[in-house]
Protein backbone atom coordinates (compact mmCIF):
# COMPACT_ATOMS: atom_id res chain seq x y z
CA UNK A 1 0.00 0.00 0.00
CA UNK A 2 1.34 3.46 -0.90
CA UNK A 3 2.01 5.82 1.96
CA UNK A 4 2.06 9.60 1.82
CA UNK A 5 3.44 11.76 4.61
CA UNK A 6 3.19 15.44 5.45
CA UNK A 7 5.60 17.00 7.93
CA UNK A 8 5.09 20.43 9.45
CA UNK A 9 8.19 21.34 11.40
CA UNK A 10 10.29 23.99 13.02
CA UNK A 11 13.41 23.59 15.16
CA UNK A 12 11.34 22.73 18.24
CA UNK A 13 8.91 20.04 17.03
CA UNK A 14 7.55 18.25 14.01
CA UNK A 15 3.98 17.16 13.34
CA UNK A 16 3.92 14.10 11.10
CA UNK A 17 0.74 13.07 9.31
CA UNK A 18 0.74 9.76 7.41
CA UNK A 19 -2.16 9.24 5.05
CA UNK A 20 -3.16 6.24 3.00
CA UNK A 21 -6.38 5.02 1.43
CA UNK A 22 -7.43 3.44 4.71
CA UNK A 23 -6.07 5.61 7.53
CA UNK A 24 -4.53 8.82 8.82
CA UNK A 25 -1.96 8.78 11.61
CA UNK A 26 -0.72 11.86 13.49
CA UNK A 27 2.46 11.92 15.56
CA UNK A 28 4.76 14.51 17.11
CA UNK A 29 8.53 14.48 17.51
CA UNK A 30 10.25 17.07 19.68
CA UNK A 31 13.82 18.21 19.16
CA UNK A 32 14.52 19.02 22.83
CA UNK A 33 16.56 21.98 21.69
CA UNK A 34 17.02 24.77 24.18
CA UNK A 35 15.40 28.08 23.45
CA UNK A 36 18.13 30.74 23.24
CA UNK A 37 15.89 33.71 22.43
CA UNK A 38 15.52 34.84 26.03
CA UNK A 39 19.20 34.71 26.91
CA UNK A 40 20.94 38.03 27.52
CA UNK A 41 24.66 38.39 26.98
CA UNK A 42 26.31 40.08 29.96
CA UNK A 43 29.88 41.20 29.47
CA UNK A 44 31.86 42.02 32.59
CA UNK A 45 35.08 43.14 30.96
CA UNK A 46 36.72 43.44 27.54
CA UNK A 47 38.64 40.19 28.19
CA UNK A 48 35.36 38.26 28.41
CA UNK A 49 34.80 38.64 24.63
CA UNK A 50 37.18 35.74 23.93
CA UNK A 51 35.39 33.53 26.44
CA UNK A 52 32.02 34.53 24.99
CA UNK A 53 33.16 33.54 21.49
CA UNK A 54 34.39 30.14 22.70
CA UNK A 55 31.14 29.46 24.55
CA UNK A 56 29.10 30.53 21.52
CA UNK A 57 31.06 28.10 19.32
CA UNK A 58 30.35 25.22 21.71
CA UNK A 59 26.68 26.19 21.90
CA UNK A 60 26.36 26.25 18.11
CA UNK A 61 28.06 22.86 17.77
CA UNK A 62 25.76 21.33 20.40
CA UNK A 63 22.74 22.85 18.62
CA UNK A 64 23.86 21.31 15.29
CA UNK A 65 24.22 17.88 16.92
CA UNK A 66 20.76 18.10 18.52
CA UNK A 67 19.15 19.13 15.24
CA UNK A 68 20.96 16.35 13.36
CA UNK A 69 19.58 13.74 15.80
CA UNK A 70 16.13 15.37 15.52
CA UNK A 71 16.15 15.15 11.71
CA UNK A 72 17.40 11.55 11.83
CA UNK A 73 14.53 10.63 14.18
CA UNK A 74 12.04 12.21 11.76
CA UNK A 75 13.57 10.32 8.83
CA UNK A 76 13.42 7.04 10.76
CA UNK A 77 9.70 7.61 11.31
CA UNK A 78 8.85 8.35 7.65
CA UNK A 79 11.11 5.87 5.82
CA UNK A 80 8.15 3.95 4.40
CA UNK A 81 6.76 7.04 2.62
CA UNK A 82 6.60 7.16 -1.14
CA UNK A 83 5.86 10.90 -1.24
CA UNK A 84 6.72 13.57 1.34
CA UNK A 85 5.34 17.05 1.81
CA UNK A 86 7.59 19.09 4.09
CA UNK A 87 6.34 22.49 5.20
CA UNK A 88 6.75 25.04 7.98
CA UNK A 89 8.28 28.37 8.92
CA UNK A 90 12.01 29.06 9.01
CA UNK A 91 14.92 26.94 7.87
CA UNK A 92 14.11 23.59 9.48
CA UNK A 93 12.25 22.33 6.39
CA UNK A 94 15.29 23.00 4.17
CA UNK A 95 17.65 21.42 6.69
CA UNK A 96 15.47 18.28 6.85
CA UNK A 97 15.35 18.12 3.05
CA UNK A 98 19.18 18.18 2.95
CA UNK A 99 19.34 15.35 5.49
CA UNK A 100 16.89 13.28 3.45
CA UNK A 101 18.85 13.85 0.24
CA UNK A 102 21.96 12.45 1.99
CA UNK A 103 20.17 9.14 2.67
CA UNK A 104 21.21 6.46 0.21
CA UNK A 105 18.41 4.06 1.16
CA UNK A 106 15.54 6.57 1.19
CA UNK A 107 14.49 8.54 -1.88
CA UNK A 108 10.87 9.66 -1.70
CA UNK A 109 9.34 12.23 -4.02
CA UNK A 110 9.82 15.48 -2.06
CA UNK A 111 7.82 18.69 -2.05
CA UNK A 112 8.97 21.52 0.24
CA UNK A 113 6.76 24.54 0.91
CA UNK A 114 6.80 27.52 3.27
CA UNK A 115 4.00 27.70 5.85
CA UNK A 116 3.14 29.69 8.94
CA UNK A 117 2.36 28.26 12.34
CA UNK A 118 -0.70 26.02 12.08
CA UNK A 119 -3.01 24.10 14.40
CA UNK A 120 -3.02 20.30 14.25
CA UNK A 121 -6.33 20.33 12.37
CA UNK A 122 -4.96 22.85 9.83
CA UNK A 123 -1.88 20.68 9.31
CA UNK A 124 -4.00 17.55 8.78
CA UNK A 125 -6.32 19.38 6.37
CA UNK A 126 -3.38 20.67 4.31
CA UNK A 127 -1.83 17.19 4.08
CA UNK A 128 -5.14 15.54 3.11
CA UNK A 129 -5.77 18.20 0.45
CA UNK A 130 -2.25 17.91 -0.94
CA UNK A 131 -2.39 14.10 -1.26
CA UNK A 132 -6.07 13.81 -2.29
CA UNK A 133 -5.21 13.17 -6.00
CA UNK A 134 -3.09 10.16 -4.99
CA UNK A 135 -5.58 8.49 -2.66
Protein described:
- Helix 1 packs across helix 2.
- The protein has 3 helices and 5 strands, in the order βββαβαβα.
- A 5-stranded mixed β-sheet has the order 3-2-1-4-5, with helices on both faces.
- It has one domain (4-30, 50-134): Nucleotidyltransferase, domain 5 (2-Layer Sandwich), CATH 3.30.420.60.
- It is of the alpha/beta class and 135 residues long.
- It is globular and about 55 Å long.
CATH class: Alpha Beta
Q: How many H/I helices?
A: 3
Helix and strand composition category: alpha/beta
What summary fits the major beta sheet?
A: 5 strands, mixed
CATH topology: Nucleotidyltransferase, domain 5
**Helix proportion of residues, in percent?**
40-55%
Number of strand elements: 5
Q: What string gives the helices and strands in order?
A: EEEHEHEH
Question: Based on the structure given, which CATH architecture is correct?
Answer: 2-Layer Sandwich
Order of strands in the sheet with the most strands?
Answer: 3-2-1-4-5
- Please mark out the parts with pLDDT under 50 across 5 or more consecutive residues, or reply none: 36-45
**In CATH, what is the homologous superfamily?**
eRF1 domain 2
Percent of residues in beta strands? Answer: 15-25%
N- to C-terminal separation? 11 Å
| Overall spatial form | globular
For the CA atoms, what is the radius of gyration? Answer: 18 Å
How many domain units?
Answer: 1
